Amino acid sequence: MKILPIYKNKIISLPAECVSEKLSTASKDELKVLLAVYLEQEFEQIDMAAKLDMTENAFKRALSTWEKAGVIAIDKPKAQKKPTKKVEKPKKEKESKKTPKVEVHTTLPHYTSSEVAGVLETKNGCSELIDSCQQILGKMFNASETAIVVGLVDHLDLSNDYVLLLCSHAASMDKRSVRYIEKLALNYYDLDVRTVAGLEEELNSIEDRASLENFVRTTFGLGKRALIKKEKDYISAWSDKFKFQKEIIQRAYEVTVSKTNEPKLSYANAVLENWYAAGYKTIEDIDKAEAEWKENRKTNSGSFVTDDFYEDALMRSYESDNNNKKGE
Description:
Layout: H1 16-23, H2 28-39, H3 45-51, H4 56-68, H5 113-122, H6 126-137, H7 143-154, H8 160-172, H9 178-190, H10 196-219, H11 229-241, H12 246-260, H13 265-278, H14 283-301, H15 308-327
């Protein structure tokens, strides 16, 4: 097949060697940006991003891709030299200089009913995707909701599996709004999380934390009240830093109640911090360490107290924490 270009009033000239090397891996956004900047070499980034219906961060990333590939060079304006002559500055009145608001794209572009129909007809598996999303969320989509899902696969070029994973996550969090899914997709797209594997990692972390929070609420009797920052920090550390399973949190709860007669999160946190510092990762690690401690105490003194395993390392940490609070 031979293509014959039809030239009119304006011609775009591209560096063939550099472009061809990148062409096979270039995304839809990167191609849009490439053509746009060759059509219009001088522009404001925020204006051009809006013109292309992209976030400014996404535009900057695409621009950087072509700069690194040697296709474009970005000429940054030089800072103007300060005048040598001393100029008396007029007295400033109290006046707040308002920074112009930056337009942020928080939604996908509008799709007409005919455009939606065209994508459903031509995009492989798109109609089946709509059906699957409806089943996962347990609702029939209206025209605008269908257009959102169409925009995810057509405008953002996300895979069907990616969109299905977003829907499954939303359903598991009992959030069945398609607008919520759109917001998630735009956020992760802007963070450059565009593969199913990358999305799975992000969502698993969120779901694990939410599951642990529900477990802690139930176990410690927190109910449905809003958690204070300190409580959120505890749970975040147990989940993200310590990576403790629920059975270890349960054991810490049991130790806490046996020691204080109350389900105190601060005491449980001291228990868990000590276990983490000692390198315990499983219930078996804790049981083994306790058994070794008891045996050592029995050998050295001829007797032992069961709770001393927790007392020795724990109380100093807990009392120190309380003393710090009193001194604040």
